[in-house]
Amino acid sequence: MEQPGLQQMVEGQRFPGRLLFRVLLLLYSPLGLCLFLLRLFIGAHVFLVSCVIPDCAIRRFLIRVMTSVLGVLVSQSGAPDPALKIFVSNHVTCLDHNVLSLLSTCSTPSVSCPPGFLCWARGFLELGAPGSRTQLLESLKHYLSQPGSPPLLLFPEEEMTNGRVGLLHFSSWAFSLSDCVQPVTLRVSRPLLSVAVAGSPWYVELFWTLFSLCTVYHVRWLPSMCRLPRESDEDFACRVQQMLAHSLGVQGTKHTAADRAEYVKRRRRETPPPKPQTPPTASTAAGHMAQRVKEVLPQVPVAVILRDLAQTGCVDATITNLIEGRVPYVPEEESSREAGAREANCKQIPRGFARRPEDRHLSLQERKEALYHHARRRYLEKFGAVAAAKEKSE
């Protein structure tokens, strides 16, 4: 069976595609903004409660009730194994570790978030400045060796997906810490809006969480899995991935977190943000008309064309004025192709300075006539049917 592509596993658009849902979202927006402001105030109280009350079942119950007011609804099936020290889960949103900590005491290491107040406030376990993978593993092993340390919650995918069609390849480092782990599946849904968009910062995702009517998390604790005899970290990780994928009803893929990051970068380059469209102005229309005249008479400077168009307001009238010499100008240097075309049209016209005034006048008229026919033919070739119909009607 062919594995799904990254475009199916990663959300690139937050808003619904169907017009009906977009209209419903627009009607909901005033209520959503009011909910965001109210929940922002309540969220500050949730943070204070989590800081004041020590970690226990009562604290988790209180915070779970308060987060339901914030629109985060959590349900679970199964139960965590108190004997295990490693939980592994698929990764869907930036709040996954906060939601799972409402159900069981656990710590999530800050793999990419630098240590500091923000890292601590978001609920991550601080292990010092992010370094190499070897340093991370040493820090986690030291953490697990301490008596009474809470279990670790790890996300082997290392990046978020929508969790609907496939899982990213599980990194093996998470399975080198213990021979037994407990898999956890996460399903997240939200009305009208995507639960997470690739490349969106965590604070933007927090805004949409508080803005939405609700975000529903369903957590399922699966039976624990232990390493088989002589099974490598990579094989153990692959087996756990397949177990999680089967439970979610999706596929375990070979796409890595690096592949996902590259896909997101490529998608941003291929689809730049749309520029705001502005209605055409008078200057824009004049520029289009000048371009049409320039295509017929390439030797005429654009400034001269624009000046005459400001008087006539008509492409045909400006071309006639320029051909008949009513508008003086200094010709621009023409390309060899244009010069050759002019030469072909004027090859029958006498060259040089005629001795008699009548011959000189005739030569000028013939040259003007040839130039007119050449310009008219170019104009008809460019704007053929429209110009011909207009000329016929006149």
How far apart lie the N and C ends? 68 Å
User: SSE order, as H and E?
Assistant: HHHEEHEHEHEEEHEEHEHHHHHH
Please give the number of β-strands.
10
Mean pLDDT: 82
Described by strand count, sense and barrel closure, the largest sheet is: 6 strands, mixed
Query: Beta-strand percentage?
Result: 5-15%
User: Spans of 5+ residues with little confidence (pLDDT < 50)?
Assistant: 334-353
Helix share, percent? 40-55%
| Whole-angstrom Rg | 36 Å
Count of DSSP-assigned helices: 14
Give the tally of structural domains.
2
By secondary-structure content and strand pairing, the structural class works out as: alpha/beta
Description of the molecule:
By secondary structure, the protein is of the alpha/beta class. The chain has 2 domains: 6-107 and 150-270, no CATH class; 282-393, no CATH class. The chain contains 14 helices and 10 strands. The protein has helices at residues 6-9, 19-52, 57-69, 96-103, 117-121, 133-145, 202-211, 233-248, 257-270, 282-296, 302-312, 315-323, 336-345, 357-393; strands at residues 72-77, 86-89, 108-109, 124-125, 152-154, 166-167, 180-189, 215-221, 225-226, 251-252. It starts with 5 loop residues before the first helix and ends with a helix. Mean pLDDT is 82; it is low at 334-353.
Element layout with pairings:
Layout: H1 6-9, H2 19-52, H3 57-69, E1 72-77, E2 86-89, H4 96-103, E3 108-109, H5 117-121, E4 124-125, H6 133-145, E5 152-154, E6 166-167, E7 180-189, H7 202-211, E8 215-221, E9 225-226, H8 233-248, E10 251-252, H9 257-270, H10 282-296, H11 302-312, H12 315-323, H13 336-345, H14 357-393
Parallel strand pairs: 1-8, 2-5, 2-7, 3-4, 6-10
Antiparallel strand pairs: 7-8, 7-9
Helix pairs in contact: 2-3, 2-7, 10-11, 10-12, 10-14, 11-12
